[in-house]
Amino acid sequence: MSTNGHSVGAHFENREPTVKETYKAILRIAKELGPVKEDPKKTSIHLVRKTAFAGIATRKTALVLTLKSDVDISHQRITRREQASANRWHLEINLDTPDQVDKEIVAWLKRAYELAG
């Protein structure tokens, strides 16, 4: 899939195989929640319901998952928390392997998905 000259596949060029496997794990969970559109951008891939609920930026050996939230969550797995507006937070989580997409990530992903619909 390509939009504005960007493709999902291009985000995985010159990346370790675990990066794509981790992305697939996130995408599989997201699609279990309901309809999801992959929207590749220059620096990340947005996962969209009616609006974006997650962003995935790939790195050489890992990826950075950014989730939408209606509350600030202070947790050791969240490496960056940014208040986007009065009732919106963006939470960043670094993921190195697919098995890190666990119950906790699933719960946060579900909450983000619900906010985007």
| Structure class | alpha+beta
Poorly predicted ranges: none
Strand proportion: 35-45%
Topology pattern, helix = H, strand = E: EEHEEEEEEH
The radius of gyration computed from the alpha-carbon positions, rounded to a whole number of angstroms, is: 13 Å
The quaternary structure here is single chain
Which strand order do you get reading across the main beta sheet? 3-4-5-6-8-7
Indicate the percent of residues in helices. 25-40%
Shape: globular
Main pleated-sheet profile: 6 strands, antiparallel
- Count of separate DSSP helical elements: 2
What is the total tally of β strands?
Answer: 8
How far is the N terminus from the C terminus? 22 Å
What's the pLDDT, averaged over the residues?
Answer: 95
Q: How would you summarize what this structure contains?
A:
The protein is an alpha+beta fold and 117 residues long. The protein is built from two helices and eight strands.
Structure commentary:
The chain is an alpha+beta fold and about 120 residues long. It has 2 helices and 8 strands; from the N terminus they run E-E-H-E-E-E-E-E-E-H. Helix content is about 25%, strand content about 35%. The strands form 2 sheets. Strands 3-4-5-6-8-7 form a 6-stranded antiparallel β-sheet. A two-stranded antiparallel ribbon has the order 1-2. Strand 1 and strand 2 form a beta hairpin. It is globular and about 40 Å long. The protein starts with a strand and ends with a helix. The model has no long low-confidence stretch (mean pLDDT about 95).
